[in-house]
Design goal:
This protein has helices spanning about 1-25, 30-50, 75-90, 95-105, 115-120, 140-160, 185-210, 215-220, and strands spanning about 55-65, 120-125, 130-135, 165-170. It is of the alpha+beta class. The protein has 2 domains: about 1-50 and about 180-220, no CATH class; about 55-170, Alpha-Beta Plaits, CATH 3.30.70. It is found in: Cell membrane.
């Protein structure tokens, strides 16, 4: 019975503490909002002024399926193209193609693996379409890398494995809109960090505050009832 009473008293004490903590957070709400706004502003300024913008350009290529003499699709060739897609993707990202791209665009001074680091090659789901994307800090350079990569790949497979059916579905374009950084996302993250920091400060100050604020605090600390209270009057 004594244990149950102690547990109940403990739960009541926790509820009182949580209630006071919630009230403390409400009182400091302006401070929390202020730090959230500051965090968002700092994130916006840092992202727009100090983070290097990245621009992407893409082209789509497709291994065209030959038709039979009757004008129908050659399904053997279609199956062969499907199986060759992964091979084509590996060739595009290989040194045999990208080294020539680096040389032709005179990018040797940027490092041996610069072009490789900018290129990504993906395959559209359930298709034989291959998307080649280059991402750099210069929109025109991104386009040039894609164009040269496509050109060298087509030349390579034509010369080395006698593949002449690669067609370009979508040409690369100069895209002036950066793909990175994500300003909106960074601003939201900055605001959330401001809320977390300010909220942490409020909670920490609350937990470290050992002062007695209410009659209940005094009774709990001294373990004796309070018989009287002296009202507090501010000086006018």
């Amino acid at each position: 019975m004594e244990e149950i009473r102690n547990t109940t008293e403990s739960n009541e004490e926790i509820e009182i503490d949580l209630s006071r903590l919630f009230n403390e957070i409400k009182k400091k709400l302006k401070f929390i909002i202020l730090l959230a706004v500051i965090g968002a502003i700092v994130a916006f300024i840092f992202t727009t002024m100090f983070v290097i913008k990245k621009y992407a350009s893409s082209a789509d290529i497709y291994p065209k399926t030959n038709t039979t003499d009757t004008g129908t699709l050659d399904y053997n060739a279609l199956n062969a193209n499907t199986k060759m897609v992964n091979n084509y993707m590996a060739i595009i990202q290989g040194d045999s193609v990208l080294d020539v791209v680096t040389k032709n665009l005179k990018l040797e001074d940027r490092g041996e693996d610069f072009v490789k680091s900018t290129i990504s090659v993906t395959n559209e789901a359930n298709t034989e379409i291959i998307k080649i994307t280059a991402t750099t800090d210069d929109p025109k350079l991104s386009k040039d890398i894609v164009d040269e990569t496509v050109s060298q790949f087509i030349s390579y497979v034509k010369d080395k494995i006698d593949v002449k059916n690669i067609m370009i579905l979508n040409q690369a374009k100069v895209e002036e809109t950066p793909v990175a950084p994500n300003v909106k996302m960074n601003v939201v993250i900055g605001a959330l960090l401001g809320i977390m920091i300010s909220g942490g400060i409020v909670v920490l100050r609350f937990l470290l505050d050992k002062r007695l604020h209410t009659k209940d605090d005094v009774e709990a600390y001294l373990e004796i009832p309070v018989l009287a209270e002296v009202p507090y009057f501010e000086d006018k």
